Amino acid sequence: MRVLVTGGTGFLGAHLVPKLVEAGHQVRVLARTEGAALPPGVERVKGDLRDIESVKRAVAGIDALYHLAGLVSFRPEDGRKMYELHVDCTRELLARVKESGQKPRVVLASTSGTIAVSKDDRVGTEADDYPVAVVGRWPYYLSKIYEEKQTLEICRREGFPLVVLNPSLLLGPGDDRLSSTWIVSKFLNRDIAAMPTGGLSFVDVRDAAQAFAAALTAGEPYGRHLMGVNMLLSELFARLERLTGVAAPRLKLPAGLNVAGAHLLDGIARLRGGRAALDPQEVDIAEHFFYLDASKAEAELGFKARDAQETLFDTVRYLLDRMPPGSLPGVKGKLADLRAPRA
């Protein structure tokens, strides 16, 4: 098939594109710069989703479209930028597809945060409604909800076959921009002062890429597919402590006090012309639960999560390899004596 991948040089895209090439597809990537390396044979269309002419070139003659391009930010000032990228640019992308006369299969990279987010310790499923009341103050998740709803509406109307994939927090090797592995990076740098009370779900980027590759021919039409492994944040940090020797946060505060403290520290940092190590929105998010049921993705897409310890080990090792020489020598020494468990 002739496949276009937006966001093909990002964290998920860098793992997905080689799989599509290996499967024999003709792959085209829409990329803003020439810098990122692509596998041999992959066509690069230089451009941006905001550039109509480059989008027209990219969608010409395609049989399938993977829409992975996005921005992950928990800073309120990035809210408009994320809305423009996730909503406005997605709408324009699908309009250019319609103009081309093609009816490609569309695979949308959404997030588990459009479904499985709660103030309570509960497990979300694809049958849940959009949790707007919970995520309404978090621009990233709100813009992804709008993107998902809009894409479902347009693709149904235009007859584009669509599958929506909802991976949770992506971990594993290859996140050069720290777009997803920021929580591990901030743990290693001891930026997390207090233990959060919430729980997250995460998925190894390599397992997510495998499910995305399968979505080219599988998955429920116009359906959503959650992927991830559930874990209390306290357990995640305990595992990272055992793995690296970096101490997990010992301070435990009620959720409201923890968020209020984050706002106070951020306010002080701004008065000094800087930013706090943790954005208050990140702290607020960590006081919620992102638990999910991945059984549908397992059945429809063959999704299988590898051992969580392998994912954490490979994430830490990748991040440490990219830190300046001399950074966290004790952690590097400890990792050198360990072997990553295999599932």
CATH superfamily of the domain at 2-174 and 202-228 and 291-306: NAD(P)-binding Rossmann-like Domain
Which of globular, elongated, flat, extended, rod-shaped describes the shape?
A: globular
Order of helices and strands: EHEEHEHEHHEEHEEHEEHEHHHHH
Amount of helix = 40-55%
Structural summary, described in words:
43% of the residues lie in helices and 15% in strands. A 7-stranded parallel beta sheet has the order 3-2-1-4-5-6-10, with helices on both faces. Strands 7-9-11 form a 3-stranded mixed beta sheet. Helix 2 (52-59) crosses helix 3 (79-100). With 343 residues, the protein is an alpha/beta fold. The chain is globular and about 60 Å long. It has 13 helices and 12 strands. It has a domain at 2-174 and 202-228 and 291-306: NAD(P)-binding Rossmann-like Domain (Rossmann fold, 3-Layer(aba) Sandwich), CATH 3.40.50. It starts with a strand and ends in a 7-residue tail after the last helix.
Q: What are the salient characteristics of this protein?
A:
43% helix; alpha/beta; 12 strands; Rossmann fold; 343 residues; 13 helices; seven-stranded parallel β-sheet
